[in-house]
Write a structure and sequence with these properties.
mainly alpha, 4 helices, about 80% helix, elongated
Length: about 100
């Protein structure tokens, strides 16, 4: 994700909310494709209290990190088995 573009997008949304009110963000919600960002804006539109909003989004980030760690672990283990499979293939080819 482009950090500068994301920050500019947040600033534009904040300016729109200041001009048109929080409910004015509903029209922009359809253009937000990132699930996390979409959820955050939806919670703001729904009037979620700031502390509750922060807790929800921090929990969401923790779940995303956990899911990514599981994916990383899979590929780390697969990479560990790769040399073994290479040696096994070599031995089978020699025996054949």
């Amino acid at each position: 994700m482009d950090t500068i573009a994301t920050l500019n997008r947040i600033v534009r949304l904040a300016e729109k909310a200041r001009r048109d009110g929080i409910l004015g963000l509903e029209s922009q919600l359809k253009m937000i494709t990132e699930p996390f960002f979409h959820k955050a804006v939806q919670l703001v539109i729904d009037g979620t209290e700031v502390t509750v909003l922060r807790d929800i989004l921090e929990t969401e980030i923790a779940y995303i990190e956990e899911r990514h760690k599981r994916g990383i672990t899979f590929f780390q283990k697969a990479g560990g088995f790769a040399p073994t499979l290479g040696i096994l293939g070599t031995v089978l080819a020699l025996v054949n």
